[in-house]
Structure formats: structure tokens, C-alpha cells
TrEMBL record, chain A:
Family from the record: Belongs to the WD repeat BOP1/ERB1 family.
The keyword rRNA processing belongs to this UniProt entry's keyword annotation: yes
Organism whose genome encodes this protein: Coniochaeta ligniaria NRRL 30616
Record's subcellular location: Nucleus, Nucleolus; Nucleus, Nucleoplasm
A GO term for molecular function: large ribosomal subunit rRNA binding
Bias (Acidic residues) ranges: 17-28, 35-81
Ranges of Basic and acidic residues composition bias in the record: 87-126
Keyword flag Disulfide bond: no
Gene Ontology annotations of biological process type: maturation of 5.8S rRNA from tricistronic rRNA transcript (SSU-rRNA, 5.8S rRNA, LSU-rRNA); maturation of LSU-rRNA from tricistronic rRNA transcript (SSU-rRNA, 5.8S rRNA, LSU-rRNA)
Its job: Component of the NOP7 complex, which is required for maturation of the 25S and 5.8S ribosomal RNAs and formation of the 60S ribosome.
Protein name listed in UniProt: Ribosome biogenesis protein ERB1
Source domain of life: Eukaryota
From TrEMBL, chain B:
Keyword set, alphabetical order: Nucleus, Ribosome biogenesis, rRNA processing
GO cellular component, one term: nucleoplasm
Gene3D superfamilies xref list: BRCT domain
Chain's role: Component of the NOP7 complex, which is required for maturation of the 25S and 5.8S ribosomal RNAs and formation of the 60S ribosome.
Domain of life: Eukaryota
Subunit text: Component of the NOP7 complex, composed of ERB1, NOP7 and YTM1. Within the NOP7 complex ERB1 appears to interact directly with NOP7 and YTM1. The NOP7 complex also associates with the 66S pre-ribosome.
GO BP term, pick one: maturation of LSU-rRNA from tricistronic rRNA transcript (SSU-rRNA, 5.8S rRNA, LSU-rRNA)
Pfam families referenced in this protein's UniProt entry, alphabetically: BRCT (PF00533), Pescadillo_N (PF06732)
Positions of the BRCT domain: 362-478
GO molecular function: ribonucleoprotein complex binding; RNA binding
Protein name per Swiss-Prot or TrEMBL: Pescadillo homolog
Recorded family membership: Belongs to the pescadillo family.
CDD domains: BRCT_pescadillo_like
Amino acid sequence: MAPKSTDKKRKASIQEELSDDELNDLDFDGALSQSEDEFDAVSTDEEDEEEDGDDDASEAEEEDDEALLSDDIPSDEEEVDAAIQKLLKEKIEPGTEPNDKDGDLTAEDARGQNDDDDRPNYRVETDANGNERYVYPEIDAVYDSDDSDKAPENTIGDIPLTFYDQYPHIGYDINGKKIMRPASGDALDALLDSIEVPQGWTGLTDPATGKPLQLSRDELEILKRVQMNEIPVDGYDPYPDTVEWFTSFEEKMPLSAAPEPKRRFLPSKHEQKRVMKLVRAIREGRILPYKPPEEREKEEEEKDEVHFDIWQDEQPRDPHVMHIPAPKLPPPSYDMSYNPPAEYLPTQEEREAWQNLDPEEREKEYVPQKYDSLRKVPGYDMFVKERFERCLDLYLAPRIRKNRLNIDPNSLLPKLPRPEELKPFPTVCQTTFRGHDGRVRSLSIDPSGLWLASGGDDGTVRVWELLTGRQIWSVRLASDEAVNCVRWRPTKGTAILSAAAGEDIFLMIPPVLDPVAEQENRAILDVGFGYATSGQQAPLNVGQTPPAKWARPGTKLEDEGVLIRITVRSTVKVISWHRRGDHFATTSPSGQRSAVAIHTLSKHLTQIPFRKLSGLAQTAHFHPSRPLFFVATQRMIRCYDLQKLELIKVIQPGARWISSFDIHAGGDNLIVGSYDRRLLWHDLDLSTRPYKTMRFHEQAIRAVKYHKGGLPLFVDASDDGSLQVFHGKVVTDLMENPTIVPVKVLKGHKVVSNLGVLDVDWHPKEPWVVSAGADGTCRLWM
Amino acid sequence: MPQIKKKGQAGAAKNYITRTQAVKKLQISLPDFRKLCIWKGIYPREPRNKKKVSKSATASTTFYYTKDIQYLLHEPLLQKFRDQKVLEKKISKALGRGDVSDAARFERNASNPEKTGKPKYTLDHVIRERYPTFIDAVRDLDDCLSMLFLFANLPSTSTVPAKMIARCERLTLEFQHYLILSHSLRKSFLSIKGIYYQANIQGEDVLWLVPYKFNQRVVGDVDFRIMGTFVEFYMTLLGFINYRLYTSIGLKYPPKFDQTKDDQAGELGAFTLEGLNPVAQDDSTKLLTNSRAEHGPDPKVQDAVNKLVQQLKEGETNGDEEAAPAADGEEEEEQATDGIDKFEPAAPGGDILPQPSYSTNDPAQLFSKCTIFLSRETPRQSLEFILRAFGCKRIGWDAVLGEGAFTTNELDPSITHQIVDRPPIQAVVNEDGDGEDNQTSQKLAPNQRVPGRIYVQPQWVWDSVNEEEMQRPDLYAPGAQLPPHLSPFVQMKQGQYDPTVPLEEQETEAEALDADLADGEEGADVKEITDGAEGMDVAESEEDEDENEEDDEDEVDEDEEDVEEGSDAEESAALQRQIELEAELAGKSVKAKDQDPKTKAKLEARKALQKRAKEEAEDLERAKGMLSKKKRKLFEQMQYTNNKKSEEDKKLRAKRRKLEKEAAKGKAQ
């Protein structure tokens, strides 16, 4: 602190000095002002000291310091001084420097004169290049704040002072002026100093000022305390007693002397509100005078419920659309009476059955009971339980609005024409043909309608007189194979029968005609042999087996009337004749590529029309009038054009497994029977999908047949042992739908090992139908 | 491209909410939710497709409408529930801290309906919401009454506080008072479950069931909390309904209740009805109670006197009003328009409309002329109620049955009818003198009858009420075999079995024929053979017939008519032969020949009937075949229910036939 205080002192003195300068010698040399200042300052300091006397010890120390410093480098000082003088003189041009000073002065003057006239505040000079130069007077900030009287701060920063050892100054002040090294005292002083160590002498030099560092007693004390690790401030008590600024003791005098506010003297509105609330509550009876709790409770209990007319201003409101009122419990019926009519009482068995049932499964929750007088009626033990269940129903049971159809069930039934109107159709079994051993697999009525041919599991083909049921002819075609199919050649006047047993197809002429006609028939069959031998058949490639072999069956069979045997590659199931009687198609489902074969009778020729078939062929038929050929696989029926040899149509009945189908004589309609119990009516013009699906059978449908003689009838045969006769009228008008009416169920065949009726056929003209049963009989229905 | 719809953002998924979700949304406990649902009448719904509705993988079972639950969100009761929950939490916390006094204070604040029988909340607004009009409330009264009558008869337990029972009892009795005063009770039925009553309140039929006065057995798991919730609601509802009903007939509600009378089993008599204005008060009080003042003079004498006075008064008024005959005429006209007119068809050909029957005897006055005494074994409460409701003013009963009787003296000469339900004791019939000596003057010896009085069993009252006229008392005499008691609520449908109609009128043709045949055969057998084995024979012959029929059916296909007739002939011949054989065995002459043509005709008729039925069945089969699958299913369902019903009826008819036959046989013997 000491150096600072000295600085302050010095500054003050400088200022004084400056003012002196301004006042007294206005035209002294500005260039030397600094150094002169310094000197003056020192001198004035000393003067001041002298003036102050002895009261300020520090100043004395300062003096000593100076003396000491001067003592240190006296010669240097002088030299330096001299050098500075010289330098300054060299540097500052005699012209400019004084001018500068003049400027200063003029500025000072200008400030004084500004009030008088409008003189420009600059001077015009010529610079080194000879140009005009405006020189403005230096602005004097006229600091009169504290820092102005501070001793000039050394601004050299963190540089060792030794760098300045050779110079007269020790650094620069804030204005860039040199801070001159304080002058050292003269030798005498130094001597004196050496003799007497002044108070506060440390022997150190203040690096900032370059003066001897003097420390006062207090400062020394502080240093000592710091050294001793004590708190440097004297008299500081680190543990003072707490002063209770805010205490529980009421002070005599208030802390604040502010006068009481006005609001403290006005009635509170808020309070008034609260009070009014209470008053209102009391008036309305919400707040009651205190009563002991027991009394209060008793009173509360006694208080009755308030009743009022809740429907005083009732307004009918339609119930919500989605609201479903709870259904009411049904009213009691007669049997709930305590004394019901005797017929309502359950018999012993009924009562036992009721008791044995699980309570949840019982239709009624009570048993009707009779008591002969009212006093004997006991309490109903399920009363609470039933009420509880009703409660549960009311809030737990989901409610749905169920529309109960309140109509006569008979109104649902379609109006069908009476069967009498649809007559004729077969109704009763007229003849039973017995004779086959085992199942009758197939049957057929000859084109004249007189004879019935049948073939069965026993390997025989039999011909019967249709009306009488008399067997007239029989031949055993195979001993171990069943006759799968029997078909007459459809031309009139001939009686050629085709039958399939195993892989062989036999063509035979039963002795039903007169010998002349029979001879003609033989000729028809035999003409092919000539054709074959004449070699007009297409030559076969080497190694390729022919699709079929046409041959004589052997003398034994020939004697019986069987004339031709055609052996194909696999078991033939279905034979279907072309209407002209020259071609017939056979189908053998297991025959892979050769499943379907078309045979030409007149040429003894067998062709396999399809190179490949998708699916197992089930059956095949010729179109009754056009050169079309229908092949049924398991799911589809494909229609091929025989002339163009292309696929025309694929009919999709939607059945899983087609068993048989038949084409209407008109050629536009088709019925399909399937093993999945469906009978499907197709209209070929309309769609490939069925027009009507009928599912009346409980078992698979084996065979379907249209009546070919102009009657609108068709029939199907099923494994459930029944035939169903339908009236199916096909109209030529395209706009009119065919009417299909079931007319009759013919039952008679017995079901043997899950097989019922295996085949049906219509009489060519009459509404008669024959059926072949698994029970070994054929039946004629008329 | 339209915006892709997210699953569960619209439609059914939004419309329905599961129960768990609903409870979460309302932030209440499940029991509180249940209460709320019960009171607000919110019930689960069955969505068309449960899978579409449930958002979770597991199948939820209960769905509510989201709108319903939203509607619950604004319910003031919800706040009450929450408050209650908070209070409970406070109590449990206080107890946890050990602050017993705090807990007790909270406890006092809590509503404890078990103790007081009254909760802190009221359900008034709920009732107003659920039933916007009075009629709506009356429509929903069935369950309410059944429930309250049950609770009025329950013993008090911890779950069913005594207060609640007392209130139920009061409410039901008040309601009964209204029915008595307004004469709106219509029908009643004694069932094995209890007594059904039907009243007509402002055009709405209300049917409820009252248990017999026995201690109710509680079997199975019955949650009385749920029932209590219902009862709480129903009590409020019936309170308001009673208020409305009472005020509608000019009475003050609640009526004065006499606790002491009630304690002495006064039941209906414990109430004193008051009119809204003091003038009406006298009438009403007189109307109801068996006031002692009425007891004094004989009612018949009183009636006669009253009539005389009335005539006199009328004469006076007539004299006064002769001056203004026009006014009189108007009155008459008005009176004339009051009743229902009979519409007679003026010209033939019009449709006949159903018309309300204008009964001459007012059901409300059915028992008005009777003084009835109830023996101590009869159910007093129900009898008193029903008799009063049908106009009986003077009902006396044994002092054992409680307070409030017109007379407790069985020998009171004014009694016209006495209802007894005890069996006549044949063993000891004391001499009159002995009886007098032994008994006090009031008591009668067993089987002793007061002359000039009609003794009937209780069923007489019910049957009279349902028939709206007094039944013949001799049918209901003590110890007599009572006629069956039939439910008056059954709505007869065409073709349904009706026990009141003779059997011949409702049996089908086939049944009648069968029965006749059986009768005929039996008759013949009875005539011819007196052996014990005849019944067996009959049965055998019937079986034979059945078999033959089956055979017929099999063969019918071959050749229907010829064969059938042939078999018919064969059969009858065989039958005849057998009868002859039996007769020979029994050593009697054959008398069946004269009956032969009759039975033959009947047999033929039956055959024809069977044939027709078969043809019809065939037709039906054909037609059914042409139906689509859906329609066929529907048709079969309908057929199923119809057949089931007709089967039941058939069984009833068969039973009745059998019973009648037995009865006839019993008579014959």
C-alpha cells in the first residue's frame, strides 16, 4: 500500500504543479515537460514534505528511497539524462515540436476564444510531400476523476526490469511516455541513509516503481501473521457470538416505522363473503347446531326418504333405437298351478327323467305337482335362486333383438304343380326281373322297347321280355369278370347288343328276331372283317400294339350268338353308341391315354381320339344330333368337335366326382350325377355352371338318364336304393326357363353293402323306367 | 388410391368396448361398475362378429356399447363412488398409522348403509332418466315388485339389513293399499312357486310373484350384494311410483304408519291413509280399515237403512230438482255415454271386430256383500289383500293371525263366508253339549259348523276372482276334491291344448279315430270277454295292427291301392277270426258281427286318413326339395318347434284320454 499512497501523493503534487505551469509559465518547452515534471515532482515532493513536516513518515521513507536509488546509479543517471536530452533534441524538429506545443496551447486558447468568434479549430500545414494538411488540436479529455492523479502506471508488462537497466527510464506510462528512473539522492544523503536505517526499511526495491520498498509497521505485522498462518487482519474474531436479529422477544420499538395502512381499519370483504356463506347455510338449514353424534345418528335413521312427484313434468321420450328392453318373464302356465289338471302331472318315468337331467339341461325348472289343499303347499326352495338368476340376466346377459319369423312355414314352400298334372311318370314297380347272381351292373332296353338286356357280377348277359319279366336268353361272357356295361345298338330294326366285361367288348345278337333279320344283323357285324382283311386299315408302326383287337370270340360263344370280341387295353366301364349305330365309344377310367376309344363297327376300327386326357375319364357320350363328343372326367365335362377335332367347351358342374351324365335329346341340356350326392342340370346355352343343383339323395348318385322318347322326364339312381323321377321340361323358347319339378321317389331296391341302384334306363317311348339293383334284381317301374 | 383403413379404427371395433376396457375408462372398481350398470340399466351387447370387435388376441366375452360407457362417464354417482373410495383409503391409511380416532372420525363420515339402510347418494335422477314417463316406470314394474316382495319376506342377515327389509315391507304394503283402493288387481294365481298377482295400473298389466309365507331357503351361490343393488334401485322406484299413485287418487303419501300395530302383525292394518285435503280423509279411512264403528250394527240391516235413507234423500232432491228437468236429462245423457256401447252388425257381410266385454258385475264389488272369516290355518296376508282388493270390507280372522281383524270371534253372526283349509275329522264328533262345556264360547269344536254360513276352501276365492264371479261353493267345500286351479294368464292359441275344453273338441281326426277304435275294441272285448287278460289282448291286437301298417307302407310302393285294400281285408278277416277264436275259447257266442260294419268303416276311414297323411308328407318332401338350402333350414327349424309343441299337446291329450277312460271305468264299476 505504501507505494500506492506515495503515488497518489505524487500525482496530487503533479497536478498542482501542472496547474502552476498553466498558470505561471505558459511558454515553457513542452518537449522537456516530462522530465521536468519528474524533477519538479521530486522537488515539489520534497517541498511538500518539508511543508508537511514530520507527521507523514512515508514521505520521509520515500525520500530515503530516492536517495538510495540515486546512490545506486548516480553516474548512469546523469549519462542517461544527458542522452535523453540529446535524443530528444535530435528527434524533435525545432519547427514542429514547438508547433505541437503551440497547438496545444492554441487549443487551450481556442477553448477560451470559441465563445468570441467562429474560427476554424484546425491549422493548415504542409506535410512532407508539400500537400495541405489539416492539423487539429489535441483533444484534452480534461480528466478530473480519481485515476488522473494516479502515478503513471508502468505498462511494460511481465518483462524483467533488468532489461531497462541501461536506460534512464524504467518503462512507459499509459500515454506512452517514459517513466524516468527516479533520481537518486546525492552521496551525502546516501551516506546519511547508510548511517540510519529508517523505519520500515526492507532493503527491497519495489519492482513496479523501482523505488525502495518500504513497508509500514502494520504491513509488517500482516506479513508476520501470514507467515504464522494466522488470519492477517488484526482483531478478527473467527467465532463471534450469534446476533439474534429475529428473535422471539418482542422489541420495544417496531422495526418499521411505517404508519398502519388504511385497509387495516376497513371491514374485510372477503370475510364478509365467508360470513354470508355461513349465514346462508344456516338459513337454508345446511348447518345445524351441534348435536352429540349418537343423537345425530338416531335422527338420521329416523329421517324418512323424501318423496315427490318425480314425473311432474314428464315428457315422453322415444326409447333409444339401440335400446332393447329386458324381456318379461313368461306368465305361469297351467302346469305351474298348485292344483293342476291331472293330465299335466308327469308320469313316474318323466319325473325320473327330469331328476336325472342336469339342472341346466332341464326344460322346465320345476316338476308339476298336485297338492289337494292350499295348506299343504310348501315353500318353493328355488325362489331366491331364481330371482337371483333373473337379476343376473338383467344386468349380465347380452341382449340381442332376434327377429322371430312369424309366418306360416308352409308359405316358404314353392307352389309346385300337382304331380297329377305332370303325369305320366312311373309310380309303381310293375315287374321284377330276378335271375342274376350278385349285382346287376347295367341294363338297357332295346330300341323297339320289347326286350331288356342286363349284365351283372356273375358275368352273364341276360335278355328279358320287358313286360312279363321272362328271361329269354342268357350268355356267360366271362367267368371271373363282371359285365360292366350292356348297351343295345340304337338303330331300329336291329337287335345288336354290346356288352363290356373286363377288357373285352362283345357284340352279340340275341335270338329275339326272326332268322332273316338276324342274318341281316350278322351281316352288319361281319362286314368289318372284310374291311380289315382287305388291308384298308392304316398301317401300324412297327412295335406299336393296336388299340384294340377285333376277333371272333370262339366257337362256344359264337354258337350262343356272341359274334365279335374286341379286346382293348384296359377294363371298359361305359359303352355309348352313336345315334346312327356305326360308332360307339368306350370308356375305361383306368386306361390312362387310351381311356376313351371310339370304335367303328363297319370297319372294325378302333381309334383313340385323345393323346392325353387331364383327369380320369369317367364316361363319354355322343351328341344326339351334332358331331360333338362329350367326355366327363372327375370334375369337368369336355365337349369336342369331332369334325374340327378341337375342344369347344368345358362344363364345370362343380361336383367332386362325376359318376355319369346324360344329354337331352334336344342337345342343349345336360344332367350330371355325382358321387357327392348331387344332381346337376346344365343349360349349355346359358353357362358352363349348373342351372339347378338338386341334392335329394342321401347317398351317391350312380346313374342319370333323360327320357329319349319325347317325354319331359329324367331319372337318377342312387346308392340309397331309390330312384328319383323328375319332370324337366325343356322349352325351345330361350326366354323361358326349364321347369324342373321332382315328381316321384321310387323305392324298392334293397341296399346291399352300401350299393343301391346301379343303373337306370328309360323305355324308348313309354314313361317306364328300368333299374338295376345291387340286390340282384332289375325292376320295371310304370 | 384411397387411404388405407387401419384395423380397429372404425366400425364395430369402435362401437363396442369390453368390460375390462370400460372399467379402466371409468376408473372404478368392478363392483362399482356393476352397481352403476344395474342402476343405469346398461347391459352387455352381443356384437355380430366378436372377432372384429375384440382388439386383443384372446376372446373377450362381455361387450358394451362405447356410447353407453361414455354416457356413464358423466354420471354424478361416479363421483360418489370415487369419494367413497378416497374415504376408504383414508381410513385404511389412518388405521395403518395407528390413528384410531382419525379412522373413527372418517368412519362416521362414511355412509354405512348396512347400519342405516340408507346410502349417502340418491337414485332419483337415475329413475327420472331411465323412466321419462310414469307409464315407462309402470311397464318395468314386474321385476321390481317380485324382488321387493321377496325381500320383504327374507330374514335379515348381515348382507340384507333389517332396515332394508322393513322398507321393502312398507313399500309393498303401501302398494297393496293402492291396489285395494283403486281396485286395480285383476287376477291372481296360486302356483307351486308362490302367488302370482296381476294388476292393471293405468292401462299397463303388471304381473308379479309373491312367495308363500315361509322362511326362504337360500340354495346355491346367491350373491346378495347384487340383489341388494337391485333392491336399492327398486325401493327408490317403488317409492316414487307409490307417491304418484297415491296422489293420483287423492291420498297423502307416505300414509301414516302405526309401529305398534305393525309389531302386532297388523300388516295392511298398520297404515292409515289420509286424503290430501281433509274432506276426503274421512272417506278413505272408512274405506279401508275394519273400523270398529262399522262393526256395531248388522251390515244387512245397515244396508237396508242406508237404502231407505238414500231413497228419502233422492225423493227430496227429486222434489227440489223437478224445476230443472233439462239439467237432469243432460246428466242422464252423460251417464249414458260413460259406459261401453254394444255394436251390433246392422247389415250382414261385415267383419266382426273384437269388442270389450261389458260385464254387468263389477269385479271390484265381487265380495262387497260378504263378511268373511279366515280360519287360522289359511294364509291371511294374501287372502286379506285379495279379498279387500275385490271389495270385501269386513274380514275377520282368528286372533292368532294378527292384528287388524274385523272380528276375531268365529261365532260372529254377521259372518257370511268362512274360509277353512283343514281336513274334516271323521273320528270323533262330540255332542254339542260336550263341546260347549269344554271350549270357551269363542272356540268351536272340530268339524262343528255355524249354521247359515258358507264354508269354502281358499281356492274358492282365487277361482272366483279369476272368473270374476262367485263360484259354486259346494265344489270348494272343506274336504271336497277341488276342481283344478288353472292359470288365468295363459293366452290360448289355435290348436293348443286347452284343459277347460272337452277332449272331443280339440283332438285331431286321427286321434279321435284311434281312440274310437281302441274304445270299440275294448268295448267289444269288455262285452265279450270278462277275463283279466283282455287288456293284454287289446295291446297285442294294436301292435299287430301297427306291424301290419308298417308292412303296408313297405308294400305301398309296389301297388298302392289294390294291395292295401287286400291287406285291409286280410287284416280285418284275421281280426275277426281271432275274435271268434277267443270267443269260442271263452265259450260265448260271437256277437261282434253287428259291430263289424262300424269298425270296418272306422278302419277304412283311418286307412284313408293315413294315406292322405302319407301323400301330404310326400308332397311336402317334393316341395322342400325345391327350396334353397337356407330356406330349407329355416323351414325345418319352424317345423321342429311346431312339431315339438304339437307333440306336447298330443301327449297331454293322450294322458287326458287315459284318465277319462279310467274315470269312466271307475264309475262303471
